[in-house]
Amino acid sequence: MGSTYNSVAKSIVENSIRSAIYIDDSLSLPFDRSDNVRFNSESKSLYDSFRRNNVNLNFFKFKKGISWIEKERLLFKSQDLIILDWQLENDGKEEQTLKILEKAVLTPSLHFVCIYTKTDPADLEDIIYSIRAFFGKHDGLAYQSWENIKVVFENDGFFDENFITTIKGQLKELVLYDDRKAESFATINELFSQHLQTRFDEFKHTIEGTFRNLEDGYEAIGYAINQVVMNQTPHKVMDVKTFINDKFLFLNHTIILLTNKQQQKPGALFRYFRDAVVKSSGNFLSLLSLEIKNIFRDGSGFIGKEIDTIDEKAFFYHKAQIELPNSFYDFLIDIWKSEMVSVLYKKDGFPKIIDDQILKKYISSKNIKLQLRKYALQENSDNELSKLNYYYNKLQVDRDRDDYLKFGDIFRIVKENSTSKEFLLCITARCDCLYPENIKKRYHFVEGNIIKNKEGLEIGDTGFISFIKNNTGEIICIKWYSNRPFSIYIENRNVLRNPFTANIGYKGKKIEYVDTIKENYAQRIANNAFSNPVRVGVDFAHKKKK
What we know:
Elements: H1 5-16, E1 19-24, H2 37-51, E2 56-61, H3 72-76, E3 81-84, H4 95-105, E4 112-117, H5 124-134, H6 141-154, H7 161-176, H8 181-196, H9 200-210, H10 214-225, E5 240-243, E6 248-251, E7 254-260, H11 269-281, H12 284-299, H13 312-321, H14 325-345, H15 356-365, H16 368-373, H17 381-393, E8 409-414, E9 422-426, H18 430-434, E10 442-451, H19 453-459, E11 465-469, E12 475-480, E13 486-489, E14 500-504, E15 507-516, H20 519-531
Parallel strand pairs: 1-2, 1-3, 3-4, 4-7
Antiparallel strand pairs: 5-6, 6-7, 8-9, 8-15, 9-10, 10-12, 10-13, 11-12, 14-15
């Protein structure tokens, strides 16, 4: 019998987890007889469960007053899965648990988290709500903002305890159930309207003046009323998808599964986690990404085997000819880039999940062909297709802010008190960016404006466009005027860290770095831009088409 999608998916998840760590405040090491017998038995069962599946499981006992951050290397480096007890402090807030989770989801190599808790299964959604609050767009000021709003209306007895009890559940649902967001929002509006009566418009105006919009305001008020922990120093807003029925989240590309300790015994936890990830994620691209990672890890032994036959004197001779240290590093990257990609072209490097037969079974089981017939007409299809183009044209490298200006860098023209719609793309040749004295520090750019994503999708690869994220994380489309290249004199090429002023035309404009697109996309735009000045106009007699 041939492989099925389900069997391949399980194999991918199994191969993705080689090392795990269990963090709890009440555990004993598997073979330590000096601690509590019950906890010793639990940890040994857990250890055996993972050992049977060739996973190395480590243990970390959380203690109050001892900084876990000192153990960062043990907790987060080289781990594929963190099993995390929710009640590390047992104070109902669990701020330290959230901080550990934050560190986990910010670790690029760590893809899996299992929150293994004594919390009643019926209350697991409260944990999801706490996670959404901690990693959302609001910080601790939400509490103070709600207190300020409440004072305005509390004197008239509007926000008594009975009303707070009525509204708090609805405010929680607004965050938890993305598919019912419009319905929850309407219900909340109606409850506030009925309760505040003639002062409802004043209340709405106050919220909109405090937060970005009414929905954001309700979300923040809900966090304050439900007394959840807010992140005082939040990172950028993370992508999050919630699946309440499956007790499951995607957070910053990390798969987080919640399960109760009584329901899932330690000895069966690994297989339960594996099966739950396959069932709950149900995301073909997530599993494909994991399989590619597995292939690179297993094939990494081949990388560099040919290169190490080169005489090191030739290597250092070439390094001595290159003036800038970053230039030599770019040279090394180019060598190893092709070596790494070659792993995927080997016979055993081809991802099993995109085998024709597996794909056909998956497409059939998900009824995808029928869904695609109406997909282009769906409300969110433009956003999702734009997201696909964003990842396809973006250079997936976090640029160091001390790095120098490079070919393909995109900058935003900053305007005071307004959202900028004008952008610049550097089309200066890579070698000239390395040695700007050759061009007398005059860098070449083209200008572009934001267009609707729908229009960009219609233009497709027939035009000169880019898909990037704006400063709120929304994907936007820029149309480049590649027939109008121009140059800007830039004295200091380290312009990625802070906004700077450049003379464009007769005006000094403030610009700031946004992103970088892949070289082939930038090169296409540059080719068109530099071919435009060498065009020749002629005037033949001609007849217009009827």
